[in-house]
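The protein record reproduced below.
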Amino acid sequence: PGKGVLLLAIVASTAFPQIATVSPLYLLLRALGLRDTWTALVLANTSFALPLLIWLIAGFIREIPIEVEEAAFLDGAGRLGALGRIVLPLIAPGVASAALLTFLASWNEFLFAFTFTATEASRTVPVALALFPGVFEIPWGDIAAASILASLPPIIIVVGLQRWLVHGLVGGALKE
């Protein structure tokens, strides 16, 4: 029962919208000397992604039958052996999915990146696209080309992780 309450509390923390936390986070990052750094963005994005990651990976771990771990113990594996050779490979699709979702959310995130960065060196792609220079006209062609180039890394990563995303969770893991 305690696990469910803890997981619910972690997931409930996602109820706070980013806009409600921007000002306190900005003050904290400025006090820590992290304003206009990528470290600030990593910390902010991680703090918002972590509840979803915990919920996703907990779901994958919960779906692993206890018989899989018991079979590993019967075959002579210890706790660490079962974890490293059995459990971690079985939750790899969940970890890959969580990593992909986190990357995509961070890659597309605008509010924190716009608020916490001030120089071109620390800007992210969405902020750079939003602030694309145009003095007397909007350079739609340049913006479209930059948008296409900005979409290539996520596409390449999704294609690279596709094997992990469609791989079965426990297919063929149990001994009969």
Summary: Residues 2-166 form a domain with the MetI-like fold fold (CATH 1.10.3720.10).
